[in-house]
Amino acid sequence: MTVLLNVYFETVERAVRTHGGEILRFVGDAMLIVFAQENNQSAESVCENAMRAAKAALADLENVNRKRLEEGLPILRFGDGLHYGEVVYGNVGGTHRLDFTVMGVAVNRTARLESLTKQIGTPLLMSDVLASHITEPTVCCGDFAVKGVAAPLTVHALQSALPFAKVAEGNA
């Protein structure tokens, strides 16, 4: 199991580092990744970097899976949720155990987007906020009520992924 997870983590890490992101933590078989907006970097630049990293990780995983199939090994799948927003960051914990992390509504929305990837049927979903900051065309998949978020999330997928996404209507 750890060998399989490490193949997945290494595949994603390469894409994330190449595009300026940082893996803050591993949470079971998931990763908390941030693309910090630094040095007067525009929202568009940060969002484009996050989207490019996600697309690169998914493309790299296709190559990994092709080799795994040839070797008779199970393939790997993952979903990616992207959102742009403010977070609170710092060390949290107790006297004997601290952890550096990010918290806030933006983190929750990102996690909920990732969880919708299976339901919608596409491995890369994004909020309407992030979609408004990228140049690649997106398609609205609908509004989804999700745990911990008062208003339904408007979810987008890349138009290039449309044949794989189930475009939903009235899912709020």
UniProtKB/TrEMBL annotation:
UniProt cross-references to CDD domains, sorted A to Z: CHD
InterPro entries xref list: A/G_cyclase, Adenylyl/Guanylyl_Cyclase_3/4, Nucleotide_cyclase
Domain Guanylate cyclase: residue ranges: 1-114
Protein's UniProt name: Adenylate/guanylate cyclase domain-containing protein
Highest classification ranks of the organism: Bacteria, Pseudomonadati, Pseudomonadota, Alphaproteobacteria, Rhodospirillales
Stored Pfam families: Guanylate_cyc (PF00211)
